[in-house]
Write a structure and sequence with these properties.
The two termini are about 40 Å apart. The protein contains 15 helices and 14 strands. Helix content is about 30%, strand content about 10%. The chain has a four-stranded mixed sheet with strand order 12-11-10-13. Strands 3-6-14 form a three-stranded antiparallel sheet, with helices on one face. By secondary structure, the chain is an alpha+beta fold. The radius of gyration is 25 Å and the shape is globular.
């Protein structure tokens, strides 16, 4: 996805972009002034990449009583989707549910950007991020051309941001990464922040207008209120997809503030409210507290006995696991299609993610110097950082670490100044953290907490650590077994749909089916202001006894991001997964900045293996000798 795509200088990105048909690539001469009238729309009927043209639908329209503008009927939208993904949709949400989801995600977006100046919103060019103002325009562009113009096909062409080539400016597959900082040269204009905000507000209001007009023509009962009116499954899906896309960018905005060293956002609303908890309209109330942000996670911290007993590994016997989405699931992304059975040998998995203290031991033992622990690609990445450090004379350690050019510890780690010994014999400079290290956290530095999960590690660093302790990263299937089953439901007999361990027995969340309350079960939604210790949130423990499998940090797996059997691209967002297959590694579980509607145990996310600006961590898996426990 564009929210996690690194800069255009990376060979893997260039290869992915090269897969886009030449007819749909940006023009070579990006310095020429672009003309909106001259921009060539891509034909959605032909299924071009990020197509923007919707064929005229001459069929009967759904016209609810009192509607001023007709909506495209679901049947017409389904005809545009040759892969048939819209025909799978079966969840109907009410007007009230969708309105609440729009309100919720916009409140999060505003909170993530609050306090930033116009100059900060444009930011500085950096390979792992996008300008904030570009992100806002891109969200609006996605809403307009992926959702609104499908639902309301008669929307005037110049209804929003007139005089600008919106595709050249905000289409993530047309706007080259570097061009997002120089829109005037690349697209012929540079809309101001107020114009971009008006664009986003205008498109959102138009979509809410669609929600108010939409209805289920097959409804047999009359709703009690307007909020209870049900939309058809296709309209429900399209609205939610746009909302989910904005949630992706909320996490991206928080991550970008961290990368650039800006002040952290205000993570919790000033007043109590309900927030969206899943993609099916579920809502939960925020449990407010007077405890400062940096200490909120302590409410869910275990006692000392729990800390001592929570370490170690769980042992999982060999079996067959159903990996992938089922057709009855309420929400499915294309990369999750479809459920298929895989054989999984017996394995052991760490009960918790690797901590800062544990990873510091790897660094102290010379892990970054021992080539035998690293893969060929990982060692090349590390040597590339060393070469950069040697060439950039005068760059201090903190600046290099913030830039992700780390060579002896994870990104954002910096060596603490040595202090004199205190009377008790301990260091008086880093008494509460990992000895010798500080971490750069947004616009400040703080002691590196020993029991917090190591974060901002690349796949290569995680792989090397696992080799150091005699283990490996878990496969995607192993991770899911530990997160979505328990000893009473796994393993099961192959092909027996009614057997325990089948797709029907899998958990939506590690703890069960209850919605992910950020105050008691998982570190999500940014409400806790950062990562919690790995043994926090005991109520969120999985059936196998693994903790922190939802929220806190994205967890690397050893699995390449590849399509499942039965894969079909989503409509209308065809680029959600397909361009990235084979290049990225699967990550699971979400992080502390992930919005709850996205976070579920079956969600397949992916990052480039060299990425370390994102909130990634990992846990260790072990093979079982002889294949049996």
């Amino acid at each position: 996805r564009e929210r996690t795509s690194p800069g255009g200088t990376r060979p893997a990105v260039a290869r992915a972009r090269a897969r886009v048909p030449a007819a749909y690539m940006p023009p070579a001469d990006v310095s020429a002034k672009a003309s909106p009238a001259a921009s060539q729309p891509r034909d959605r009927w032909f299924h071009g990449v990020h197509a923007h043209f919707v064929p005229s639908m001459s069929r009967e329209r759904d016209v609810p009583p009192g509607a001023a503008v007709a909506l495209a009927p679901p049947s017409s939208l389904k005809d545009l989707d040759v892969y048939g993904t819209l025909r799978e949709k079966h969840v109907r949400l009410s007007r009230g549910q969708i309105r609440a989801m729009y309100s919720d995600v916009r409140e999060r977006t505003k909170r993530a950007l609050a306090g930033l100046s116009p100059a900060q919103l444009r930011a500085v060019p950096e390979p792992s991020l996008n300008p904030f103002d570009w992100g806002l325009g891109h969200i609006a562009h996605f809403y307009e051309f992926m959702i609104l113009r499908l639902l309301a096909t008669e929307t005037p062409e110049d209804a929003f941001l007139p005089g600008h080539d919106k595709h050249a400016l905000f289409d993530s597959f047309r706007a080259a990464h570097d061009d997002r900082w120089r829109p005037a040269q690349a697209a012929g204009s540079d809309p101001g922040l107020a114009e971009i905000q008006d664009y986003l507000d205008g498109v959102t209001n138009a979509l809410l207008d669609c929600v108010g007009r939409a209805f289920d023509a097959n409804a047999t009962t009359r709703p009690k209120s307007d909020d209870d009116v049900l939309l058809d499954p296709v309209s429900s899906y399209l609205h939610v997809y746009g909302i989910v896309h904005e949630h992706w960018h909320v996490e991206d905005f928080i991550q970008t503030r961290h990368t650039l060293g800006y002040a952290p956002p205000a993570f919790v609303p000033e007043t109590p409210k309900t927030y969206a908890a899943d993609c099916a309209g579920g809502r939960l109330a925020i449990q407010t507290t007077s405890v400062p942000t940096e200490r909120r996670a302590e409410r869910n911290a275990p006692n000392e006995t729990q800390k001592r007993t929570h370490g170690g590994y769980v042992s999982v016997p060999a079996g067959r696991y159903v990996l992938g989405a089922s057709r009855g699931d309420k929400w499915v992304f294309d990369a999750e299609r479809w459920a298929h059975e895989v054989a999984v040998p017996a394995f052991r998995l760490a009960r918790a993610c690797v901590t800062n203290a544990e990873f510091a031991a790897f660094a102290r033992a010379g892990g970054y110097e021992n080539k035998t622990l690293w893969s060929h690609e990982g060692w090349r990445w590390l040597q590339g950082n060393r070469k950069w450090r040697n060439a950039e004379v005068g760059v201090d350690e903190a600046s290099a670490s913030r830039a992700g050019r780390n060579v002896d510890a994870p990104r954002y780690w910096v060596k603490a100044e040595k202090k004199k010994e205190s009377v008790s014999g301990g260091s008086d400079g880093n008494a509460s953290g990992v000895e010798g290290w500080l971490e750069l956290f947004f616009d400040s530095s703080r002691p590196l907490r020993p029991d917090a999960p190591v974060t901002h590690v690349t796949w290569y660093e995680a792989e090397a650590y696992c080799a150091w302790v005699g283990g490996r990263l878990p496969t995607e299937a192993e991770w899911e077994i530990a997160a979505r089953t328990d000893p009473s439901t796994y393993p099961s007999k192959s092909g027996d749909e009614n057997a325990t361990g089948s797709a029907r027995a899998r958990r939506e969340y590690p703890w069960g089916k209850e919605l992910p309350c950020a105050s008691t079960r998982a570190n999500l939604d940014g409400f806790h202001g950062g990562v919690a210790d790995v043994s926090a949130f005991p109520l969120g423990e999985s059936g196998w006894g693994c903790r922190g499998m939802l929220g806190n940090v994205w967890e690397w797996t050893s699995s390449a991001f590849l399509p499942f059997p039965g894969f079909a691209m989503d409509f209308p967002y065809r680029e959600n997964s397909a361009p990235w297959f084979g290049y990225r590694k699967v990550c699971k579980g979400g992080c502390w900045a992930t919005s709850a509607p996205i976070a579920r145990a079956g969600y397949r996310h992916s990052f480039w293996p060299e990425m370390n600006a994102v909130y990634t961590g990992f846990r260790v898996a072990m093979d079982v000798k002889g294949g049996k426990l």
